[in-house]
Amino acid sequence: MPRRILGAHPRWAALTVLVVLVGLGYVSLAAWAGTRAPKGTSVAGVDVSGLDRTRAAARLDRALAPRAHATVRLRVGSSTTTLRPSDAGLGVDVAATARSLNEFSLRPRTILRHLRGDGGPVPPVLTEDPQRLAAAVTQAAAVLDQPLVQGGIRFTPAGAELQLPAEGRRVDRPAAGEAIRRGWLGGGELRLPATVTQPAVPAAALRALYERQARPAASGPLRVVVGDRRVTVPRERLAPVLSVRTSSGTPRLEVVGPVLKEVLVGIDPKVERAPRDARLDVDGTRPTVVPSRTGQRLDPKRLGEAVLPALARPDRTAAVRPTLSQPRTSTADIRRLGVREVVSTFTTRFPFNPPRTQNIRIAARTLDGTLVRPGEMFSLNAALGRRTAAKGYQKAPVINGGRLEHDFGGGVSQVSTTLFNAVFFAGLDTVEHKPHSFYISRYPEGREATVSFPTVDQKFRNDSGHAVVVKTRVTGSEITVTLWGTKVWDVEARKGPRTNIRPPRTIRDTDGTCVPQSPSPGFDVVVTRVMSRDGGPVRTERFPTRYIPEDRVICA
What we know:
Layout: H1 2-33, E1 41-43, E2 46-47, H2 53-64, E3 72-76, E4 79-83, E5 90-92, H3 94-99, H4 108-116, E6 120-121, E7 126-128, H5 130-144, E8 152-156, E9 159-163, E10 168-171, H6 173-183, E11 189-191, E12 194-197, H7 203-217, E13 222-226, E14 229-233, E15 242-247, E16 250-255, H8 257-267, E17 279-281, E18 288-290, E19 295-297, H9 300-310, E20 317-320, E21 323-325, H10 331-336, E22 341-349, H11 354-367, E23 370-372, E24 377-379, H12 380-384, E25 395-400, E26 403-408, H13 412-426, E27 429-432, E28 459-461, E29 468-475, E30 478-485, E31 490-495, E32 499-502, E33 506-509, E34 522-532, E35 539-547, E36 552-555
Parallel strand pairs: 1-6, 3-11, 13-20, 33-36
Antiparallel strand pairs: 1-2, 3-4, 5-7, 8-9, 10-12, 13-14, 15-16, 17-18, 19-21, 22-30, 23-29, 24-28, 25-26, 27-28, 29-30, 31-34, 32-34, 34-35
């Protein structure tokens, strides 16, 4: 047994030695491979085949370090700028890159790469400063960004001007930084990612509109015919009239109707006119009918539609049909009113008092020319409105509670009394009137009417069957009211005697607003209006009036 054991030992020893030798050889081969780069190895295009770390680092430093200081061109569309990688905090860690080329490894695949010379490209170890890179990207984007230009056609007094559109570009900052970080070492030109915005109207469409329509439209004067008016618009005044509107990417030339209307009216105000009512002119001895006139106005939409095609025609003339408006009162309406002659006229005198005279003139001027149609009710307060300083009325004496005081519109009762007497002798229906509280000697007894806004009014109804025109005239110290129409009645006024005479009192007043008064007695009186027509039946109306005494007022 011992002999058999001793005989097997040499074989195991030899096998052990062989294994040890092979292992040592493999480790030695791995150690050799770990000292140099495999054949065919390159870094960023730099061949480092078979070089140990020191030599590889030196070669890489000579080849790659200058690239960090060389400028790289950045492009977005047609815009370019340059960037120095080192200024953006970018570089190559040469030592780390060299270490990555020949690290010791026992993996068979690594050793086989060395034996076969299958090195291949190895990425460099890059360095970066994120803050400096972001700042460099922002600076470059400020140059590469391009604002969107929609383009358009602008109209000036000299004609049409074309501005071509341009796409808008905005650099994608984060993506651009990544692109620079990955591509700067290769040099050359880097295209950076960006958001591109296209203009609403393509340049070709805008240019075509400019050449075919816009430029010819603004090239000369425009002639517009409206009814019997011909208006020439000079070229320099067409600029605000023309515009370009875009719909679904298609530009269209438009005429701005409202603006053109303003231009036409500014050149010839008569191109538009308001309708004019027919009226009666009774300033002479015979009434004259001033005929009505049809009004016309320009419709902006219709105006624009008519002018747009005319701008492309050689004569550049557009005929526009105006919108007609009829007057409320036609010439025939006025003729049918039956205003043919003076029906009645009455005059009263007034004392010297400038504020009161001013009030009389304003009221008479407001009343002058008033037309009262057949069957219509006339109100003096409605015709004159409130008497205010804004209308020019001044403070003058008025009666309030049997005493005189000053208020705006004092003296208008003189106009009211004169009108009342004209109505009285015209035989018209005196619907509402109120005599003064005490008798005023310049007025006829029982035939006068005061007025005070809004409580005391004078109203009459035109029951003559024809229209009545009120004419007033103030001359010197007289006011005359004349009624024109068709005379129906012959009128006579019969005044009865004074009755129930009442004496005045004497009042002493220390109030600072006191207005002195002269005394006159109070009394009752009846006036009868007698109306006859062509010898026919007679109509009579009684107008009873009671006057209070006008007290004597002594102001201390």
